Amino acid sequence: MNVDDALLVLDRILAPYCLNNVQEQVFRHVWEERSYTEIAQLIGYDSSYIRDVGYRLWRKVALALGERVSKSNIRVVLRRHTHSLEQSPKPLTELTTTERELMNWLALFPQSLTARELQQRAFPQLSVSQILELLTAMHWRGLVSKQSQGFALHPDYIDSQRLSLVQRFELSLYSKDLEVITLYPLTETIAPILKNRLLGHFGSPEPLIDYLRHLQKLTQPWAIATNSLHLLIQLIQQQKGALPTESSDLKILQRLIESERAGGLATWDHQLLWSNNLLCQKMGTTKQSLRQRHLADYWLADELESLRQDLQQRTRIRKQYHGWLDDGTFAFFDAEFEAVFLTDIDYQPIPARLVFINEIQSCQPPANLLSPQQRRLERFGT
């Protein structure tokens, strides 16, 4: 994938949002693996400004995709997303307007819907038997699946159809052309996705809530739109109340200090931000040395990603795994992990993890397994 292909993928992910000139230049240079300092010198801006442009761009992509995105992993993220698009069904063509509307309504709800429910919600001009006939034909074409309680979208089309609806909602809100939001209810299936994309655009909850309240005044004649905006505001206010603060950061550190177990605090860009004295003793090294580690060098392939996915499903897990204790010692680990959020310099939430070590036992590494030092040499090419 070259940089122009990557930009096309990025445009699709962020639609209807478009990159400005500086964002595009930063992305192009990042794709060529240049540092923020080098980019600033090349395009004539202060390096701190370029770093901020990059941070905000990765945050928009992260909110759109629902995963951690940074300067160091943007290539991997876009390639993986491109692969998933290539594996997904081809764009829907040759559908009638009614069939498209049926697909949209089935995408709005997590549960299946009966022909009668669809008639009552959106298709009063059609009889139940007509809707049932359409759904049955769509079932044989592989567009919907027949279930005991009605019909649902075929799994191959769920993600693309919901993303299409979210983008239509988003464009409707930005442009104040409120036709979409007066036609479709905002449901629990797509509201959280839309909320994250809007927050990525506005940057913080307060201006977004003000904007949505302004739109509520414009949509008063349409109850469906007013209710949808009310749901969005509620979701944003709930997240606002759950955002981490400097105080919550300190409580996390206090837990590490007071713990009777070896513990540390790490981010998903493979940095150990803080460790207690017991962890240093168990690892046989200093806090400064631990902070300088690139944690991915010490884990087996895919183990960290597996841990990240597990912590997205459950906030606390106990995990037994193998990895490197240091450059020369391979070990078995028994540890407990907890998903937490920290605040960055802009008071935005950053996903992180707490770890408390129960047991470490040295053992023999698998044959031909690269050591952390060999991984570093491979990564930096020196």
Overview of the structural elements:
The chain has 18 helices and seven strands. The model has no long low-confidence stretch (mean pLDDT 83). The chain has helices at residues 3-14, 21-31, 36-43, 47-65, 74-87, 97-108, 115-121, 128-140, 155-175, 179-183, 191-202, 205-218, 223-242, 246-258, 277-283, 287-291, 303-313, 372-380, and strands spanning 144-147, 150-153, 262-267, 272-275, 316-324, 330-343, 349-363. The radius of gyration is 25 Å and the shape is globular. A hairpin with a 4-residue loop joins β3 and β4. Strands 4-3-7-6-5 form a five-stranded antiparallel β-sheet, with helices on both faces. Strands 1-2 form a two-stranded antiparallel sheet. By secondary structure, it is of the alpha+beta class. The two termini are 25 Å apart.
Shape: globular
Binned strand content = 5-15%
Q: Percent of residues in helical segments? A: 55-70%
Walk across the major sheet and give the strand order. Answer: 4-3-7-6-5
Order of helical and strand elements: HHHHHHHHEEHHHHHHEEHHHEEEH
Number of helices: 18
Low-confidence stretches at least 5 residues in length (pLDDT < 50)? none
Gap from first CA to last CA: 25 Å
What's the average pLDDT? 83
Largest β-sheet summary: 5 strands, antiparallel
